[in-house]
């Protein structure tokens, strides 16, 4: 059974809210990395101690991994919005099985394409 109009409206709002949240976090990460040296009060971007360099490298890698994850999530959200607008009656149908994705799953992961969680 396809989603009802109120359910589609609810999912659209969830997608738009998640999109806004992801963009806000990504933009904040870019701003933080640009102003990090200024806030720390360092005169140089080179750490004075080897352990500091390791900590900085680890944090940079963690930030990059989070940005990558958020960018992928943003792409999934945009694709879900395109599916929702392009074929509203077909939205919420599992791409693998053709069965309806439970509304509870869509409320948690509104960009879900399948009934089951896919492992990357």
Please outline the helices and strands.
Layout: H1 5-40, H2 50-86, H3 103-108
Helix content: 55-70%
Assembly type of the chains comes to single chain
The number of distinct β-strands equals 0
Task: Characterize the main sheet.
Answer: none
Number of domains: 1
Order of helices and strands: HHH
Q: Give Rg in angstroms.
A: 20 Å
Number of helices: 3
Please tell me the overall pLDDT: 84
| Parts with pLDDT < 50 across at least 5 consecutive residues | none
Structural class: mainly alpha
Shape: elongated
| C-alpha end-to-end distance | 29 Å
β-strand percent reads under 5%
Q: What does this protein look like?
A:
This protein has 120 residues and is mostly helical. Helices cover 66% and strands 0% of the residues. The protein starts with a helix and ends in a 12-residue tail after the last helix. The model has no long low-confidence stretch (mean pLDDT 84).
In short:
The chain has 120 residues and is mainly α. The chain has helices spanning 5-40, 50-86, 103-108. It has one domain (5-39, 52-108).
Which features characterize this protein?
120 residues; mainly alpha; 3 helices; elongated
